[in-house]
Design goal:
Layout: H1 2-12, E1 17-23, E2 29-37, H2 40-44, E3 47-49, H3 53-61, E4 65-67, E5 88-97, E6 100-110, H4 117-139
Length: about 170
């Protein structure tokens, strides 16, 4: 579910990339559990430190924000494996459970139409779904066996358990 939300956020916001970052056990560093788009490989190998860079600052403050020129933002740090782009746009929304930060959702757009308040509102409204998806994936991990290795479902009964409805009215 979380990967679908990242893909939907990317597509619906006309972004080039999207990712969901989760904290490690210490809660001080975050890694992407899912990323889609142009820079997904660089995103997956990136470690975000709480309080450092745009994303880390927004993690620490638990705020959502849109940045329409990341190169002009003094908090900006270049993600290793990417190149600095003029007019790169970014939106960040925290994944909160009450006041506890469970992660962060990020989308990027290189140039083009700037993000607006309605775009940020949309991302913020997606964030509780991502938080729930993360919680559900931890509560109900996927089966360790592939479908082919699972026992088959029992066969359907040979005779129907209910009789078909017949109209008692003569014709």
């Amino acid at each position: 579910m979380v990967d679908r939300l990242a893909g939907n956020a990317k597509n619906l916001l006309n972004a080039s990339s999207s990712a969901n970052f989760l904290p490690d056990a210490s809660g001080d560093t975050y890694r992407a559990i899912v990323s889609v788009g142009d820079i997904f490989e660089a995103i997956h190998s990136t470690v975000i430190k709480s309080g450092e860079g745009i994303i880390g600052d927004l993690i620490k403050s638990r705020r959502a924000e849109l940045i329409n020129d990341t190169a002009a933002d003094p908090r900006a740090l270049l993600i290793p494996g990417t190149e600095e782009e003029q007019n790169e746009r970014m939106m960040v929304a925290p994944l909160l459970a009450g006041q506890t930060i469970k992660g962060v959702m990020v989308v990027w757009r290189p140039g083009g139409e700037p993000f607006g308040d309605t775009d940020l509102e949309f991302l913020v409204r997606l964030s509780p779904q991502a938080t729930a998806g993360i919680a559900n994936s931890r509560l109900f991990p996927q089966s360790p066996r592939p479908a082919a290795a699972r026992p088959p479902l029992p066969p359907a009964p040979a005779t129907p358990t209910a009789r078909p409805h017949t109209d008692p009215t003569p014709r």
